[in-house]
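Task: sequence design from structure.
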């Protein structure tokens, strides 16, 4: 009986590995994609879509531009994204403008004027529904954190951190803190929980994370119940985008700490762009993109399925309904 049990375990593991390999295969012989029931937003060929993952797209929310990285508000009715207005071979030389749009396609308005490099926006979870983003320093490759309000005009945004040192915001907590990566002038480099103090100095609590001593955590997203995080991980500190693995880990906001990290995609380091893992609202799954398609990883059984439907299209930056990154 013990041998049979071991054999069945091996067969199950092999079947799961084959399922994941098939899901991540080249676009050629794709099996039909099934509806997942999870609604989300994403970039497809430069346009923003709202759709149920696994179903064919209808009309995009935006068109005629290059619109990136939609993040869905916790209230479930709005997206914040950035529009590229000036392209450049060097991404940090782009000029962009932060925009808000309702998920039904109405109410589009800009929060920044397009004279800056404004990147990787999200929403606070503290009930204020505040859009925040990262703005490049005008004279060097360094960023600081900005905030505005829905309905504001460009020029009404305010800085949450000082531009004299690098701070990059990733994800927010219900209590108003923001998970950031920072080169703090006194505390040094690392990952912190930032408590904003508009008009004054914010406070920084260092996050304990053993994995961060040997590489870079990027595009970090806190789960809705704030007990886990998912993120990209790059071994070493020389920046690269291809070949990163995607991880899930335990998160303790009180300590604070990131522990028990475990890879769930591209642990082998294939030279491909695995990026932007984001939680579903029920925390049962994570959506991400592995160029050029979108995938859904289910935590319960460890399975991975492809959820983008059009071969040859450029899908990126998936996000789930009412779940700010």
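Answer:
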């Amino acid at each position: 009986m013990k041998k049979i049990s071991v054999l069945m375990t091996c067969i199950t593991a092999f079947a799961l590995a084959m399922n994941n390999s098939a899901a991540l295969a080249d676009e050629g012989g794709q099996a039909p994609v099934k509806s997942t029931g999870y609604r989300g937003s994403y970039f497809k060929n430069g346009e923003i879509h709202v759709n149920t993952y696994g179903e064919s797209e209808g009309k995009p929310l935006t068109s005629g531009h290059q619109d990136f990285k939609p993040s869905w508000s916790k209230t479930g009715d709005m997206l914040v994204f950035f529009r590229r207005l000036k392209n450049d071979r060097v991404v940090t030389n782009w000029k962009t403008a932060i925009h808000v749009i309702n998920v039904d396609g109405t109410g589009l308005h800009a929060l920044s004027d397009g004279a800056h490099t404004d990147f990787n926006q999200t929403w606070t979870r503290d009930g204020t529904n505040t859009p925040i983003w990262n703005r490049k320093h005008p004279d060097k490759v360094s960023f600081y954190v900005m905030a505005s309000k829905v309905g504001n005009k460009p020029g009404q945004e305010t800085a949450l951190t000082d531009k004299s040192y690098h701070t990059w915001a990733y994800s927010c907590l219900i209590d108003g803190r923001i998970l950031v990566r920072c080169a703090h002038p006194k505390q040094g480099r690392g990952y912190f929980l930032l408590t904003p103090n508009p008009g004054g100095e914010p406070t920084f609590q260092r996050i304990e994370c053993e994995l961060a001593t040997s590489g870079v955590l990027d595009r970090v997203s806190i789960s809705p119940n704030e007990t886990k995080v998912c993120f990209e991980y790059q071994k070493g500190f020389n920046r690269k985008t291809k070949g990163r693995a995607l991880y899930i880990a335990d998160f303790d906001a009180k300590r604070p700490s990131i522990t028990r990290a475990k890879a769930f995609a591209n642990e082998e380091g294939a030279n491909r762009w695995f990026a932007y893992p984001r939680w579903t609202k029920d925390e049962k799954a994570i959506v991400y993109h592995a160029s050029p398609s979108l995938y859904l990883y289910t935590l319960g059984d460890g399975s991975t399925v492809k959820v983008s439907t059009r071969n040859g299209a450029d899908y990126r930056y998936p996000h789930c309904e009412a779940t700010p990154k």
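The chain is about 5% helix and 45% strand.
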